[in-house]
Specification:
Helices cover 49% and strands 10% of the residues. The chain is α+β, with helices and mostly antiparallel strands. It has a single domain (4-413), classed as Cytochrome P450 (Cytochrome p450), CATH 1.10.630. The longest helix is centred in the middle third of the chain and has 23 residues, at 193-215. The termini are far apart. The chain binds protoporphyrin IX containing FE (HEM). Protoporphyrin IX containing FE binds next to helix 14, helix 15 and helix 19.
Length: 417
Amino acid sequence: MGEKIAGLDVLGEEYFADPHAYHARLREQAAASEIVLPRGTKAWLVTRYEEARLALADPRFSKHYERFPEVMALNRVGRDEGVIEFDQSLVKHMLNMDPPDHTRLRKLVTKAFTARRVEQLRPRIQEITDGLLDEMATRSEVDAVDVVDVVDALAFPLPITVICEMLDVPMDERDDFRVWSNVLVGGGNGDGADLQEAGGKMAAYLARLVENKKADPGDDFFSALVHADEDGDRLDPMELIAMAFLLLVAGHETTVNLITNGVHHLLRNPDQLEKLRADRSLLPGAVEEFLRYESPVNQATMRFTNEDVELGDVVIPKDSVVVVALSGANRDGSKFPDADRFDITRPAGGHLAFGHGVHYCLGAPLARMEGEIAVGSLLDRFDIAPAAEPDALKWRPGTLIRGLEALPVSLTPRGAR
Ligand code: HEM
């Protein structure tokens, strides 16, 4: 690892390019190791499976937004970039809360985000996917373009279309969302001014969206959320903005990488691709392996200790920032034999790609459905081959998300379905 501050590795370009090698090294050393996050915050990085699972579910690792700025300030090292003041309406969402506040919000959103409502989306998700694949086929057959970027053509537009339809964000405003959300999730550049600007625009936009839904409710998911009621309790306008923000970001910065990373590893492992083509019943297990092997959320969101906590062979002092490397845990050989091998037939389940404990991903059933439909339909329609050398592929910068910026593939249509 290149740069160091106070003798600690700073996670930077080298880490973004290959977090797995670094996690493997740390896993050998201890259950958790101190590192410095790219913006200059000292944190403990948990890389082993058992301890990752414990930390995700243990209330001594808090997420509450109220104390976060103070703990962040205590752990700032080296450079002083100042605390970024986020628009408060974007911060007060359930991923930044502990029980009982978290429990209350999660209950209300679960009322709207039912398994039935997700299952009802299936035909529409298939339809959106088919439309995107039609466009790919047209470009290939009519325009004779035989190299397509899977990110641009399928993996990005599918989940964002689904989540924007769920929240009723008009088509022509989705590009703005892409820009704001990318800035917010990517961690911004330098002084954080871009983060503040993107946050402010997003908050103002979502406030208008909430107002519209209150005034003019429909049969959609967002209306259900606006009107969700638990014993007379409801989400107030600020909570609705925060929830919509969380769903938009969580819904479109993650599934894109499930699809892209999955296709990427199928292409790099032709035997696995052949197996999947030969036996489509392997698809659900393959999606679990995509999630395990190249987890779209590389590191879970930050936690902090509200007392000294013994974790495996280390004691993490009170007021430390703690980051669970989900992709580190998911490559731990003590849980997953031959963990660095991509094997779509390995027993599915047990991975931590969707987190664990009270913050376990609310959208997991939706993400799985989108992943299966996208990859299954892509294989139905086309023979695909890599159109770039692995070294030419660029991973997105940042510690949170693991995904390729672009994945060029060459396509040969397999004929009408
Ligand atoms: C492959 C796709 C996805 C992955 C890998 C993923 C992963 C995760 C992870 C790891 C967490 C827990 C973070 C932590 O504990 O720090 C989480 C939470 C969450 N996810 Fe997802 N997610 C995905 C898709 C989605 C989708 C499509 C939605 C919604 C439409 C969604 C909504 C949420 C929400 C609301 C939370 C917060 C839950 C809480 O605090 O109780 N996710 N997700």
